Amino acid sequence: MLDFIYYPVSAILWLWHTVFGAVLGPGSGFAWALSVVFLVFTIRLLLLKPAIEQIRTARRMQELRPQLDKLRKEHAGDRGAQAAAMQKLQQEHGFNPLMGCLPALVQLPVFLGLYHVLQSFDRTGTGFGKLGMTPEANAATPNYFFDVADVQSFLGARLFGTPISAAIASPDSALESFAAHGSVPTMAGIAIVAVPLMVVASLATHLNARASVARQDPAAAANPQMALMNTLMLWVFPLGALLGGPLLMIAILLYWVANNLWTYGQQHLVFARMDREAQKESEAVESSEANAPQPGARPASRPKSGRRRGRAR
């Protein structure tokens, strides 16, 4: 049903695996890990411009908040007039609310696509997204852009001795599949690789939320609904990385870590750039006001030319 997402996601992952596999070997766990990480970087790079517009939209929202609150009070009894006035104000300032949520709307199906593609390397068992295949049938079934050899390469890939397709809570059917492509991993062995990724993902999620909350308008942050959302972002979502991590395969945890690390770096770089732009604009306005003539003062006359007109003969 979502093949229009699964095929592009798998194509980008296949491309990066082809690149890193040529250097490290197709069956290398590091080649597969880097493929997942650079899939994230590719998607985030494509979304960089909308992400910057999202941040600019948030800033414009803060600047327009006093005027929007004023319009809400003026048209408190007429929602139609209130919506029209707010829309007019947003158009006058080039404000598009859709840009504030576009990157998140795009990233969600990408994450779901990656989750499905990675899970589809192992279709044994009968859980969500599984087809009840035997390990032999699963290893002989292509996965979107990946042929049979790629599927077997992924199933056999090890990262520090642990299958990249393993999760701490891997079912018995998955363990049978791992046995067909190498040694059977233990829960402790999987945890040695998975737990650090879970901790980094949780910490990065919390730090990203802190950076976002720190730049919120204090008046907006005091709103009960916004305060609740901030609490979710600061504590509940990071906790989800720890509680839900045991259910996710190592490859998906790598996606989570890479995505949060990119977000952390992007926020700091983009905000620093926008702060410099705002500083330059403020200095330009101050300079213009300082050079403007005082009210009632005559404008400065132009300097006279040193040349005299000759007499007409």
Give an overview in words.
- InterPro entries: YidC/ALB3/OXA1/COX18, YidC/Oxa/ALB_C, YidC_ALB_C.
- Residues 32-270 form the Membrane insertase YidC/Oxa/ALB C-terminal domain.
- It comes from Nocardia jinanensis.
- This protein has helices at 3-24, 29-46, 48-74, 79-92, 102-119, 135-139, 148-156, 172-179, 187-214, 218-221, 224-244, 250-291; strands at 158-159, 162-163.
- The protein has 313 residues and is mainly α.
- It has one domain (3-278).
- A hairpin with a 2-residue loop joins strand 1 and strand 2.
- Helix 9 runs parallel beside helix 12 (250-291).
- The relative contact order is 0.10.
Strand content: under 5%
What share of the residues lie within helices?
A: 55-70%
Shape: elongated
- Give the neighbour order of strands across the main sheet: 1-2
Rg calc: 28 Å
Total number of helices:
12
Instruction: Tell me the distance between the termini.
Output: 94 Å
Mean pLDDT: 80
Structural class by secondary-structure content = mainly alpha
Order of helices and strands: HHHHHHHEEHHHHH
Poorly predicted ranges: 309-313
Question: How many separate structural domains?
Answer: 1
Largest β-sheet summary: 2 strands, antiparallel
DSSP strand tally: 2
Keywords: Cell membrane, Chaperone, Membrane, Protein transport, Transmembrane, Transmembrane helix, Transport
Transmembrane segments: 5-24, 30-52, 187-207, 232-258
Subcellular location: Cell membrane; Membrane
Main location: membrane
